[in-house]
Amino acid sequence: MGKLRFLNAGESHGPALTAIIEGIPSNLKISSEYINKELARRQKGYGRGGRMKIEKDKVKILSGVRFGYTLGSPITLMVENKDWQNWTDIMSIEGEPASKREITNPRPGHADLVGGIKYGFEDLRNVLERASARETTTRVAVGAVCKQLLEDIGIKIGSYVVSIGNLSIRDKIHDIPLEKRAEIAENSEVRIPIPEEDDKFKKLIDEAKKEGESLGGVCCRSSYGTWLLYPVG
Q1: CA distance linking residue 100 with residue 94, whole number of Å
Q2: Burial, 59: exposed, middle or buried (Cβ in 10 Å; 0-12, 13-18, 19+)?
Q3: Which residue from 149, 173, 155, 174 is spatially nearest to 226, judged by alpha carbons?
Q4: Burial class of residue 216, CB neighbours in 10 A (0-12, 13-18, 19+)
Q5: Is 134 helix (H, G, I), strand (E, B) or coil?
Q6: Are residues 164 and 226 in the same domain?
Q7: With the CA atoms of 40, 42, 43 and 45 taken in that order, what torsion angle do they form, in degrees rounded to the nearest 10?
Q8: Long-range contacts, stretch 116-122, CB < 8 angstroms, 24+ apart
Q9: 200 shares a domain with 86
Q10: 144 and 48 in a common domain
Q11: Are 173 and 218 in contact (CB under 8 A)?
Q12: Are 231 and 173 in contact (CB under 8 A)?
């Protein structure tokens, strides 16, 4: 197997998001169903924005796969943006705009200002359409293909949250096997392996939101067969 790399493209309110993966070996079994499950997981979680109610992400595999097995050539993935229907006049690829919906005030904590300076845009929509959380859709799709590759050699990936803000469940999960923690977290809106305590964390998140604040947290990602566990955050 050679070096893996991918390139993705697409705007948040454009027609679609695409990704090309290079370096996946031939004869790997992959399926759109597996990728779609990962895309659905991306849209879960407490406090998701309104965009998640619009999009029902489904991948289309356009190249590099034949009858469910990779060919060794570049794999092209595409996810259509349903919200594009509401933005055709604003994000049209050709023609003249009916309404530009220009953004001229950069948002704090975003790429608006540096992107506008780098590319010479006064309308910062040209920046934020690319520097958008929507862009992570194809990253998840690419990651799903890589997860299938790892599973093919006996490695699985799992994750769960151990703390948000000043709330922690570290001392309550010692008796839960590592693999089980990741499985149970799938049933939690805040991805903790003790779903019955979700409400405590959701209340803390709501309080911070009301005050205009944000909360940090710690999650654990694991690869198993041979379990490797390390904190992230």
Answers
A1: 13
A2: buried
A3: 155
A4: exposed
A5: helix
A6: yes
A7: 120
A8: none
A9: no
A10: yes
A11: no
A12: no
Q: What domain count does the chain have?
A: 3
Give SS3 for 89. coil
Task: Indicate whether 137 and 69 sit together in one domain.
Answer: yes
Q: Which residue reads 């759109």 in tokens?
A: 32
Domain that includes residue 175, residue range: 155-232
Give the number of C-alpha atoms closer than 13 A to the C-alpha of residue 25, restricted to the C-beta side: 9
| Helical segments of 70-135, H only | 112-119, 125-128
- 210-217, long-range: CB within 8 Å, 24+ apart, which pairs? 215/164, 215/165, 216/164, 216/165, 217/161, 217/163, 217/164, 217/165
> Do 231 and 180 meet the contact criterion of CB atoms below 8 Å apart?
no
Tens digit of pLDDT for each residue in 169-202?
999 998 998 889 999 999 999 999 999 999 999 9
Structure tokens given for 129? 């359409």
No. of helices (H) and no. of strands (E), the chain: 7, 10
Q: Tell how far CA 63 is from the center of its chain.
A: 22
pLDDT in tens, 53-76: 777 899 999 999 999 999 999 999
**206 and 178, same domain (yes or no):** yes
Read off the pTM: 0.85
